[in-house]
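Re: Re: ligand-bound prediction request (bumping)

Still looking for help on this. To restate: I need the protein modeled with adenosine monophosphate bound, output as structure tokens. Inputs repeated here so nobody has to scroll up.
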Amino acid sequence: MSVRRAGAGPLLPGSTLGVLGGGQLGRMMGLAARRMGYRIVVLDPDARCPTGQVADEVVIGGLTDEEAALELAGLVDVITLDTEHVPADLLDRLEEVVPVRPRASVLRTIQDRQTQKTFLDGLGLPQTRWAPITDDAGLDAAIAEVGLPAILKVRRAGYDGKGQVRIERAEDAAAAWDRVGKRPAVLERVVDFVREVSVVLARGLDGAIAIYPIAENVHRRHILHTTRAPAPMPAERQARAEAIARRIADDLGHVGVMAVELFELADGALLVNEIAPRTHNSGHYTYGAAATSQFEQHIRAVCGLPLGDPRPLSGAVMLNLIGELWRDGDPPWQHVLARPEARLHLYGKLAPAPGRKMGHVLLLDDDTDRALGVAEELLAALTPA
Ligand code: AMP
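Reply:
Sorry for the wait, this slipped through. Here it is.
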């Protein structure tokens, strides 16, 4: 039995968290929630989803299923999200029943790339040149404005490079537009970055902000490959990155964990790539390498508790484990488990598929150059011949 205490102080252990979407982020949040004595109910079409395996209850339904989402709302004290791809109108409806954190208005700004970019322009924050595209004529106009090479990205529901096509030459533009199904999109100028970094922070219900050490991210085939933290970075640049993220979180009135992905240029400039209004893959290192993990921090924020200490306890490298590694069955985990500095995280996904994030390895080592080398050695040992 959950007791409604929203509006009357923080939600204390014993309260019930509702999570929309049952992926690995919800799972790790669920593990943290249960450790702290919270109950967790998840909405997902599959009871055996990664979050469902660690939840107290699963409400079966998709992220657009209003009836199922309302059923979940009736069971919980607060609702939060495993993914930003929940219709904002549905969140509006849920907010009439129970607090939703972050609020529908935050998701409305972020889940559409065009709205997100317009919001960033409004704050005067630096990003690559971009233009919206809604029709064939708009595509040519956008190329004229943005220049080439560029990346066409659908406005909604794209992630890990899905719904994105790179355009090198003007004559390839029409085919690229076809490839994304002529869906409303934005065109972005390709950034010649030297490095990708992210700022993961949490913002509490009272507006307090806790920022984790900046993460340095390497992508392979559009999917995060490794994260190193803390990212070696001059103090002035770090302060600039943090100020950008703080400004975004404050202006949105965000509550919970948020990640801001940045491109770092050779001259030290930082351009915002995108905002994720939730726990983030590049913050997984905090689960093991920080005094308070991003998952506990998110729970603290959405429950109205004071934020925990984001201090790093160790240098860390995170290596993502992608579905390809399962081609011949379970990878030989003994290679990971033999290393005392390695923590293995598997998400309980029942169907490995190419490009699917199945788990990660966290390497705890203050010498993060060495840890990056170990990550590659482990990857080689886990990769099918
Ligand atoms: P996204 O889903 O937008 O984060 O894109 C995934 C990855 O694609 C990014 O982390 C970059 O590695 C790459 N990427 C996306 N947009 C650009 C861009 N405008 N210029 C260069 N690389 C990009």
